[in-house]
Amino acid sequence: HNDGGPRCTPTVDDGLVYAIGTSGDLVCLDAKTGSVRFSRNFENDLGGKNPDWRYSESPLIDGDKLLCTPGGRDAVMAALNNKTGELIWKCSMPDIGGKGRDEAGYSSIVVTEAGGVRQYVQLTNKGLIGVAAGDGRFLWGYSKIANNVANIPTPIVYGNFIFCSTAYGAGSALLEMTAAGDGVETKEIYFLNANTLQNHHGGLVRVGDYIYGGQGHGKGVPICIEFKTGKVMWKAEKQKGGGSAAVTAADGNVYFRYEKGPVVLVEATEGGYKEKGTLTPEVENGSSWAYPVVCDGRLYLRSHEALMCYDVRKK
């Protein structure tokens, strides 16, 4: 894509690598040799619909299935055989409300047993949906969380609950799933308006019974809310960097990687905003939206063509 994509985080499973390009090209590669095992195009092969800012999904492997979101009414979600690329099922999208557009969103699928039914949860541009893992049946939809521009953050599943947030004046919601025959019923536990919590991009993370992330459209003001009640435990007075904040959690802390400026380490505690340190990236060459990664005591940051690695082990 001409803006310098892709957006996908590759998925590695059983010696194979799966990746999705911005034009909807899904590839399965041999991890050792790089040879192509199979490829599919979301639009041409599966009948999907690319959104304005192009496909941004990271693929999900669940058993022998590769899950993806071609988008649109005919193929809002699809399952392929993860070794051959053969289509197992496609899920069509019913009308779940007037918000959003009939195309893929910018989120990634998560798997859950909420409500006693194994299902795949995804945020599309029409709203939050659940699809039965076994046969691809559409289980439920929730349009209230959708906005008409871009629905981005990946939902958070925890037990029988699903949390989601979007920006552009939308807000955040917690849904509870309960069994209903061979399907599930959804119940809205709470809805937070945009002034309370709207996450643009950069996502939110759950640590224990609390959610941490950046608040505000185009902003990343650190905030902590109680997962099951939506109660705001604290919100920082201001943010240290510019734009949205991509977050990850490790070792009882949350890393706020602002699109411009420093990375801020915040203690994952409901007891108040406790900043533990800042780090100015070696390279800054424009807005950096890639999520930070912490692995084996090292923090990885990407800024467009630059990749940085920092030792963050406790001395």
Quick recap of the structure?
With 315 residues, this protein is an all-beta fold. The chain has no helices and 27 strands.
What does the model show?
The protein is built from no helices and 27 strands. With 315 residues, it is mostly beta strands. The protein has a four-stranded antiparallel sheet, with no helix packed on it. A hairpin with a 2-residue loop joins strand 10 (119-124) and strand 11.
List the SSEs and their pairings.
Elements: E1 11-13, E2 16-20, E3 25-30, E4 36-41, E5 60-62, E6 65-68, E7 77-81, E8 87-91, E9 110-112, E10 119-124, E11 127-132, E12 138-142, E13 156-158, E14 161-166, E15 171-180, E16 183-193, E17 204-207, E18 210-215, E19 221-226, E20 232-235, E21 242-250, E22 253-260, E23 263-267, E24 275-279, E25 293-295, E26 298-303, E27 306-311
Antiparallel strand pairs: 1-2, 2-3, 3-4, 5-6, 6-7, 7-8, 9-10, 10-11, 11-12, 13-14, 14-15, 15-16, 17-18, 18-19, 19-20, 21-22, 22-23, 23-24, 25-26, 26-27
| Topology as a string of helices (H) and strands (E) | EEEEEEEEEEEEEEEEEEEEEEEEEEE
Shape, principal axes of CA atoms: globular
Helix fraction bin? under 10%
Q: Kindly estimate the percentage of residues that lie in beta strands according to DSSP.
A: over 45%
**Low-pLDDT windows of residues:** none
The count of helical stretches stands at: 0
Mean pLDDT: 95
Strand order of the largest sheet: 1-2-3-4
The biggest sheet, with number of strands, parallel, antiparallel or mixed sense and barrel status, is: 4 strands, antiparallel
* Helix/strand structural class: mainly beta
Radius of gyration using CA atoms only: 19 Å
Distance between the termini: 42 Å
Beta strand count: 27
